[in-house]
Write a structure and sequence with these properties.
4-stranded antiparallel sheet, binds beta-L-arabinofuranose, globular, mainly beta, 5-stranded mixed sheet
Length: 336
């Protein structure tokens, strides 16, 4: 079905869940519980009048808002602008998917943007409230590149930053953390590029180590191949822990799935397990997973409110369930 032929009224009625807010467009929701309240760190979508292209230039966001609610189904508060690009000395454009973490009385807000050379890097901003506002560090994280930072706080007090995305996210131009515009996506029969991970330093503002590529394996222990676009990593990394196992989830981009893979270490390797979310309306799909009062929730977005405009998205949440073996049950974004 082409997106032009969709009856959006009907689609919205059949949706798995309804928009969390409608007064602004929001996407790429990273959710956490801080002080017993649910905080969502989304992108703030705008229409900058830039035509759609594979580079994602039409995602021309300029600031971030933080959303919060006291419980699933509760009233959502928009805390206003938490960080604006004009207050980030190194960032020129495209404030894409962010995330946040808490440590020792400070909230750390991680975000990607393009620098003056057009290269994505990842910045950190700090604040004393989970709702912001946040004050950006003058420089991006040294050695950072690409997009979609996601922080995972492990039980042992270590924090890890996951990041990376191909195509507009530029990951294909890096090998061993070195940039060369001549580097491209691997050939179809070669292993796909993996997401990146680095442990964060004690002060949460730097990498404690050189980022390393995560290995995503199939059920035979073979690396997922570049041609396997229904399962290979594209963007939107997220890590959570369930019953002692590490679950790495991500978007497959041009095939539009949210998938997951599991492993025994925050560094992987992770073995592909299946899909979490079938394709939503709009080109991109992006998510986070958060435990709230003993239940698990998927935060995601779609473009049904804007009637299919791919860069005008809306964040949503839906309960996620696991079976006895810890397998995540696939969600259909629209009921049949
Ligand atoms: O919001 C801009 C980009 O779209 C994100 O960084 C990607 O993950 C995709 O959702």
């Amino acid at each position: 079905m082409s997106e032009q032929s969709i009856d959006y009224k009907q689609l919205r009625a059949k949706a798995l869940s309804q928009p969390l807010v409608e007064h602004i467009y929001t996407a790429d929701p990273s959710a956490h519980v801080f002080n017993g309240r649910i905080y969502i760190y989304p992108s703030h979508d705008i229409d900058a009048g830039i035509a759609f292209n594979d580079n994602g230039d039409h995602f021309a966001m300029q600031d971030y808002h933080v959303l919060s609610l006291d419980k699933p189904g509760g009233q959502v508060t928009d805390h206003g602008v938490a960080l604006h690009i004009k207050d980030v000395p190194w960032a020129e454009r495209q404030m894409w998917a962010p995330d946040a973490a808490y440590k020792n009385g400070t909230y750390y807000f991680y975000f990607p943007a393009r620098n003056a050379q057009g290269r994505f890097q990842i910045g950190v901003a700090t604040g004393d409230s989970p709702a912001g506002p946040f004050t950006a560090q003058p420089q991006p994280i040294a050695g950072s590149f690409s997009i979609d930072p996601a922080v995972f706080a492990d039980d042992d007090g270590q924090y890890y930053l996951y990041f990376g995305g191909i195509w507009g996210g530029q990951l294909q131009h890096y090998r061993d953390c070195q940039y060369d515009p001549a580097f491209a996506e691997p050939l179809a029969h070669e292993p796909a590029l993996g997401p990146m991970v680095a442990r964060l330093s004690e002060n949460m503002l730097e990498f404690a180590e050189t980022p390393q590529q995560i290995l995503l394996l199939d059920e035979q222990g073979q690396l997922l191949l570049a041609a396997d676009n229904q399962r290979r990593f594209f963007e939107a990394s997220w890590l959570h822990k369930y019953q002692g196992k590490y679950y790495f989830s991500y978007s497959t981009g041009d095939s539009h799935f949210i998938c997951y893979a599991t492993g025994d270490s925050p560094y992987g390797p992770f073995v592909y397990q299946g899909r979490i979310l079938e394709p939503v309306v709009g080109w991109t799909t992006h998510h986070s997973i958060c435990e709230i009062d003993g239940k698990w929730y998927l935060f995601y977005h779609d473009s049904s409110l804007s009637e299919g405009i791919t860069h005008l998205r809306t964040v949503k949440m839906a309960e996620l369930t696991y079976d006895e073996q810890g397998r995540i049950q696939t969600l259909q974004p629209y009921k049949e």
